[in-house]
């Protein structure tokens, strides 16, 4: 039986503006330099949650969603994506995806639709109760991804 080495042609990097993501970007840049891959950067803005400012459930007042908050977050995420995409000067091609929704689901969706060969992402390193409450996006992606996932450890400082 002959062993074949996987060729990473399409690398998806899940990012946000945290130190862990910046470290993941550094790894992705090195992989791009070595393998001359195409890169896709994805960032996900969680959907806005209703604000309860001034809403009184006893009076039948419903919480409100302020669409401007989501718009501001999306614009900020898009600006960040564009800044980071310019750093991949040695990539074959650079794609960006700015999504709104469940972080894990959107990363998996983009990986599938873009046919990623590898996903790179940072881990915030939460443990214990924080991990229980928030779950782990990287853990969820690892469990459901159809391709390898490189997780950069949470000790990012």
What can you tell me about this protein's structure?
This protein starts with 9 loop residues before the first strand and ends in a 5-residue tail after the last strand. Helix 3 (103-114) packs parallel to helix 5 (137-144). The chain has helices spanning 19-35, 67-85, 103-114, 128-134, 137-144; strands at residues 10-14, 38-45, 94-100, 118-122, 149-152. A five-stranded parallel beta sheet has the order 3-2-1-4-5, sandwiched between helices. The chain contains five helices and five strands, in the order E-H-E-H-E-H-E-H-H-E. It is of the alpha/beta class and 157 residues long.
Overview in brief:
The protein is of the alpha/beta class and 157 residues long. Helices cover 40% and strands 18% of the residues.
Describe the SSE topology.
Layout: E1 10-14, H1 19-35, E2 38-45, H2 67-85, E3 94-100, H3 103-114, E4 118-122, H4 128-134, H5 137-144, E5 149-152
Parallel strand pairs: 1-2, 1-4, 2-3, 4-5
Looking at the structure, what is the overall shape? elongated
Which band does the percent of strand residues land in? 15-25%
Walk across the major sheet and give the strand order.
3-2-1-4-5
Q: Would you tell me the structural class of the helices and strands?
A: alpha/beta
Report the mean per-residue pLDDT as an integer.
83
| Number of helical regions | 5
User: What is the H-and-E element order?
Assistant: EHEHEHEHHE
Oligomer: single chain
Gyration radius, in Å? 18 Å
Q: Uncertain runs with pLDDT below 50, 5 residues or more? A: 127-134
Measured distance between first and last alpha carbons: 44 Å
Q: Profile the largest sheet.
A: 5 strands, parallel
| Helix content, binned percent | 40-55%
Strand elements, count: 5
């Amino acid at each position: 039986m002959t062993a074949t080495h996987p060729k990473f042609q399409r690398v998806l990097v899940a990012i946000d503006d945290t130190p862990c993501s910046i470290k993941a970007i550094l790894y992705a840049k090195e992989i791009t330099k070595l393998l001359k891959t195409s890169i896709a950067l994805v960032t996900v803005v969680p959907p806005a949650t209703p604000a309860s400012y001034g809403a009184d459930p006893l009076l039948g007042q419903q919480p409100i969603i302020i669409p401007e908050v989501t718009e501001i977050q999306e614009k900020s995420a898009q600006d960040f994506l564009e800044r980071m995409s310019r750093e991949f000067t040695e990539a074959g091609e650079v794609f960006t995806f700015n999504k709104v929704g469940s972080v894990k689901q959107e990363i998996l969706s983009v990986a599938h639709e873009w046919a990623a060969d590898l996903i790179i992402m940072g881990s915030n390193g939460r443990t214990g109760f924080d991990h229980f409450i928030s779950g782990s996006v990287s853990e969820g992606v690892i469990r459901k991804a159809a391709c390898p996932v490189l997780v950069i450890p949470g000790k990012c400082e």
